[in-house]
# Entry
Amino acid sequence: MTLIINDVSRIFTSEDGEKIAALFHISLTVNDDEFICILGPSGCGKTTVLRIIAGLESASAGSVTVDGMPVTHPNPKMAMIFQEYSLYPWRTVEENVALGLELKGMKKPDRMAAVEKYLDLVGLSGFERNYPFELSGGMRQRVAVARALAIEPSILLMDEPFGALDAQTRNRMQHELLRIWEKTKKTILFVTHSVDEAVFLADRVVVLTRRPGRIREIVTIPDVRPRDRTGEEFGQIRRHLLNMITEESELVQ
Amino acid sequence: MTRRLGLILPILLIIGWEVVATIVNNPFFLPKLETVIPVLLSPFSDILGTGSLADNAIISVERVALGFALAAAVAIPLGIGMGRFSALNDFFDVTIEILRPVPPLAWVPLALAWFRIGIVSIVFIIFIGAVFPILLNTVDGVRGVKNTWIEVSSTLGASERQILTKVVLPGAAPTIWTGLRVGFGISWMCVVAAEILPGPTSGLGYLIMYAYNLGQINVIIAGIIVIGLIGLVIDLGFKAVEKRWFGWRGLER
# Structure
């Protein structure tokens, strides 16, 4: 499985006909099983990159290919996890997780076996019959992860999935995600504006500039796991990333 | 407790009614309670040669059911189309905004001219009364379906058709249901009003008007009570469904 983002630009036309560049010549080759974080100041277009990869938006120029096939529509090889409000409130946890399989026309017993497997993986066994509003924010995102994994994609696209969670829950979810990643061997593209999160999770961190978003630098994080959030080595990388982000943010204001 | 508080006023009204009726002592102005209750207690015996209370109630309910079902059959698909496609909305919007404020009863002369006296005219009036609240609520409900809900399904591989049946319809259902409930209330008012007008020879509206012509005020009051009770019971039915199936509304997270 190879994901190639080749020279992608995105230009919006505003209501008064003005052309606004959101993304500018983004190129990136993502390796198998790799964990990539896309980091950038707010409004830099990092979510737009992810949405173009997911096939939810189209690039104005350039292309995204998965195994050589251009992405023009959502593709079942990739599943997206949104920041919030993504669960269906009228469906129970198990019905939410089963949705992708239901859409494919899988029979109910097979669906339920898959649901059980993935709810177990995200640590939510026993919550099958609960409704989303009965769950905490962290639990709801676990359901969203299980729902995405259930269609067995090779790539997970995550758009600030832990952005709405409190700090402790967020840390725990990051650990959980790494555990799931190691177990399932997915390729992950993870959008965040948190330097800490990027340094803790990623193999490589792609830093975007302020709008129009270009790739400013791709930082490779040493392959040590679990990572010590307060360690010396990561401290230096964090400082380097933070400086870049601060610079980009200040240039906006 | 609130229930009990709510019962005080009806009891006072009944007592007040009996007191006034006794003082006035004129059954052609305000009959006594004891002349109304026998009418209510024998719903299956013939009244003034027009059939029983129950017969007339069933006829009115059937007319409403017909007009209301037609209104729903037109308004729900149209509302879904207008909610999903802005071109369709733009096409119909102005026309609907012009027709909507016209009171349903203003259509009566036209209905008589077109369809003559009879069931078609009555059903037409009921249709006009119910169609707008159902339509507007459906449009609102469909527009209120969160974009993320649609995108999740599309990244999980849903077809347009599946997005409609698995996301848009269930997501809009609570608001559509509210429209049906409001539309039904208006239908019920319309049927009674339409039956009071010249022409019909059955139905609760006709019964109370006929009783007026014969000076049977006790039958009028009994009829009004039955009209109110049927409306109440059906509304409670709508509310029960709302609570059972759409309890998730307002709890989206």
Remarks:
- Chain B touches chain A at residues 146, 148-149, 151-159, 162, 166-167, 170-171, 173, 246, 248-249, 251-253 (CB under 8 Å).
- Chain B has one domain: 54-245.
- Chain B is about 75% helix and 0% strand.
